[in-house]
Amino acid sequence: MPELTVNGRALRVAIGTSVAAALALGDDGSSRTSVSGQRRAPLCGMGICQECRVTIDGLRRLACQTLCHEGMQVLSQP
Amino acid sequence: MNEHADILIIGAGPAGLNAALAAAPSGARIVLLDDNPLPGGQIWRDGPQAKLPPQAHQLRNQVLAFANVQLHCATRVIARPAAKQLLVENDERGWIISYATLILCTGARELLLPFPGWTLPGVTGAGGLQALIKGGMPVANERVVIAGSGPLLLASADTARKNAAQVIRIAEQASARSVGAFAAQLPRWPHKLLQALQLFSASYRTGSHVLAAIGSERLEGVRLMQQGKIVELACDRLACGFGLTPNTQLGQALGCNLQGQAIQVDAWQATSLAEHFAAGECTGFGGSELALVEGSIAGLTAVGDRKAAERLWPQRARWQGFADALNRTFALAPALNALSEPDTLVCRCEDVPFSALHAHRSWREAKLASRCGMGACQGRVCGAATAQLFGWQPSAPRPPYSPARIETLLCVDDHPPA
Question: For the whole model, what pTM was predicted?
Answer without folding.
Answer: 0.95
